[in-house]
Specification:
Elements (H helix, E strand, L loop, with lengths): L25 H15 L4 E6 L1 H9 L5 E7 L16 E7 L13 H13 L3 E7 L7 E4 L2 E4 L3 H17 L2
Length: 170
């Protein structure tokens, strides 16, 4: 958000922090997302979601204000109802090296691709971008600092493109 907001001064940004961050409590996470959306007011909304946030964004996308969902390595499990994405634009950006590893959680690009394809079949439009050599995240934490991971610039470029398309939509 800190890098996107200055590029798009015409947009307002609201960051959602989950009270309980667990894929086992997605409905609580969706409640938090709905509260964040309420704070945005009666304006068109683009949801930018990372990992588990992809499922959360999908759950709340039926809100009439939501036009776009941008998922970075989104977790879109096969049992997730993607019907709320109908009529919305879905952009997925996923690293080709993303996997669930014993020491690092991840989401396979095959899983997000299946979710993307199901969303298109349900009536969404969009783009799927596989970032060659990309991992689950574009950055990692070292203390208080964020450190860019390989291919972070590709992630950023694709997210900026998706947000710019949302901002340009009349």
């Amino acid at each position: 958000m800190r890098r996107l907001a200055p590029r798009f001064p015409q947009l307002a940004f609201v960051e959602v922090r989950y009270r309980v961050r667990s894929w086992k409590r997605l409905e609580l996470c969706a409640e938090d997302a709905r509260e964040g959306m309420a704070a945005a007011g009666d304006v068109p909304i683009a949801l930018l979601a990372f990992s588990m946030g992809g499922a959360v964004a999908t759950m709340v996308a039926a809100d009439a204000r939501v036009r776009t969902v941008v998922g970075l390595a989104p977790w879109l499990p096969d049992e997730l109802d993607v019907a709320p994405l109908a009529g919305r634009r879905l952009t997925v950006v996923h690293g080709s090296l993303d996997r669930n590893l014993p020491w690092l959680p991840g989401v396979s690009p095959e899983l997000s691709r299946r979710g993307f394809d199901r969303a298109l079949a349900a009536g969404a439009t969009g783009d799927y971008h596989l970032v060659r050599g990309g991992f689950h995240a574009a950055a990692g934490r070292r203390g208080e600092r964020l450190v860019a991971l390989p291919r972070a610039a590709a992630y950023e470029r694709l997210v900026v493109q998706a947000v710019a398309a949302f901002a340009a939509d009349p």
